[in-house]
Amino acid sequence: MEEKKIITVKQNDEYLQLDEYTVYQLTCYDKILFQKIAGQCKLTINIIDKWISEDR
User: Fold this and answer.
1) Looking at residue 48, what DSSP letter applies?
2) d(CA 39, CA 16)
3) Residue 12: how many CB atoms within 10 A of its CB?
4) Is 40 contained in some domain?
5) Residue 1 resides in a domain
6) What percentage of the chain reaches a pLDDT higher than 90?
7) Which of 7, 19, 31, 45 would staple 11 via disulfide (CB 3.0–4.6 Å)?
8) C-beta separation of 46 from 12 below 8 A
């Protein structure tokens, strides 16, 4: 089974070089899938990489 690396929105800021506001907007409009864990938005690297590779 493939290991999924889960990151926070703040860590995603560093990964995508987008600010937190932009990342939250993308999750609100279902552009990036996320999971809510303990009241925080969490994202997986695999899903982010897939989103990057797709034609947005």
Assistant:
1) H
2) 22
3) 23
4) yes
5) no
6) 9
7) 7
8) no
